[in-house]
Specification:
This protein is mostly beta strands. It contains no helices and six strands. The N terminus is likely disordered. Bound molecules: zinc ion. Zinc ion binds next to loops.
């Protein structure tokens, strides 16, 4: 897979101009430096057995996946206790502002 510049370095999230985008399809995920997970499709399921028999837990431990609305690529995953807020991951650009 190659990036928009043909470099072959497309990431999971790419910075283009002032916004971050899906590295596969280019779907706009909002301004750089802002929380981008709220612009994805989030799915939750109990962790119980999600990774096979060794990963047993109670129903309140969740696996959350964050999918690109444009192409369905999984952009991130996290574990959480049911009802906990999502982790506010941000793409830091090193730019001021
Ligand atoms: Zn995408």
């Amino acid at each position: 897979m190659s990036g928009p510049d043909g470099s072959g370095a497309a990431g999971v999230l790419d910075l283009r101009g002032a916004n971050q985008h899906c590295g596969r399809c280019g779907h706009d995920l909002g301004p750089a430096g802002a929380g981008w997970k709220k612009r994805t499709l989030m799915r939750e399921r109990p962790m119980d057995g999600a990774g096979g028999a060794p990963y047993r837990s109670r129903e309140h431990v969740l696996l959350r996946t964050f999918l690109c609305p444009g192409c369905g690529r999984q952009l991130a995953a996290e574990t959480a206790i049911k009802g906990a807020p999502i982790l506010d991951d941000r793409l830091h650009t090193g730019r001021a502002g």
